[in-house]
Amino acid sequence: MSADVAARRRRLWHVAGWVLSAATIVAVGLLLRGRFDEVRSADVVPSAWAMVVAVLVNIVGNGVLVSAWQRIVRLVGPRLDWVTAAAIWAPSQLARFTLAVAQVGARAALAARHGVTLTSGAVTTLVEIGWTAAINPLLILATWTAWSGPASSLSWVPAVAVIPAGVLVLGVLDPVRLLQLVAWGLRLPGLRRFGARHATRVDEIEIDRGAALRLTGLYVLNNGLRLVAFLVILGAAGGTEAVGAAAVGAFALGQFVGRLALFAPGGIGPREGATALVLAPLVGSGPALGVVAFTRLAELAGEIAFLGIAVVADRRRRTDTRQPEHSDA
User: Fold this and answer.
1) DSSP-assigned letter for residue 284
2) How many CB atoms lie within 10 A of CB 235?
3) Of 147, 74, 142, 146, which is closest to residue 111 (Cα–Cα)?
4) For a tag site, which of 138, 216, 228, 329 has the least CB within 10 Å?
5) CB contact at 8 A, 201 and 123
6) 194, 125 in Cβ contact below 8 A?
7) 26 vs 5: CA distance, rounded Å
8) Closest CA to 93 of 104, 85, 77
9) Measured between alpha carbons, how far is 171 from 20 in angstroms, rounded to an integer?
10) Under 8 Å between Cβ of 269 and 24
11) What are the tens digits of pLDDT across the range 191-221?
C-alpha cells in the first residue's frame, strides 16, 4: 500500500469517525425529543463551583493515570520520573480527539525521545486502554437492576460487560494470562488495525500479582474520581435526587460504550448517548443532555489544564538541571 493511499484512508477514517459520532448525538437527541416539554423549565447548567470541582477532580485523575502508566513503562523499559511521564502522557492523551485510539501512536512517538522504544510506548498505552476499559463493566453489572428498566434498549450491554469484568478478575489473579488475552484480543478483526503489530510484545511484559493489584488500584481510583466529577455535575444540574445506583450505572454504561465505539474519536457521541438514555427517565431529557455535555467539558478542561501543568513542570525541571552547569562556568 502506497503512502498516499494510506494517508487517504486515515483521513477517510477520521472524517467517518466524526460523522458517526455526530450522528449518534443527533439520534439520541431525536429519541429524547418527545420528553423535552416536560423539563423545559429545568435548570440544566451546573453552577460554576461544581464545574471547578469537576475539573479539579479530573486533573487529579489524570495524575493517577500518569502514575499507572509510569509503572507499566518500568516493566518494559526505562524508569521515567513522574514529570517526564506526565509530559509524554498529557499531549498524547488529547490526540484521541483527532482520531480514535490516536494516543497509542502519539505516546509512542513522544516516549521514544526519552529512551522508550516505539513498540514499548505503544504496547504500554494499549495495556492502559484495556485495563481501564475493564473497570466500568463491574459497575455496570453491580447496578444492573437499578438502570435496566429505564434503559431497556441497552439491555445487551451487561452480557458484553461480563467479558471484560471477568478478564479484570483474571488479571488480578493471573496477570500473565491477562496480558496473553490482551495480545490475543489485539489480533481480533475489530482491533487488528490498531495493535496487531504490537500484540507479540504485550505478553512479554513481566508483571506479578502485586504489580497487577497496584495497577488495578490506581485505575479504580481514577475511575472513582471521574465518577465523583460526574455526580457533582449531576447534583448541581438539579439531579440531586437521581444520585444513586442508577446514576452510577449511567456513568459506567457511557464510559464502557464509548470504549467499544472504536469509530468515535474519544468516544464522543456513543458515550454521551448511552449515559443520557439512562439519565433521561430519572432527571428529564434536557438535564440529561446537559449533564453529559458538561461532564465532557469538565474532562476536556481537566486534560488541557493538566497539559499546561505538565509542560510548566517539565520546563522548570529542565531549567533546574541546567543551573548547576551555568554556575560552574
Assistant:
1) -
2) 18
3) 74
4) 329
5) yes
6) no
7) 31
8) 104
9) 33
10) yes
11) 555 555 555 666 667 778 888 889 999 999 9
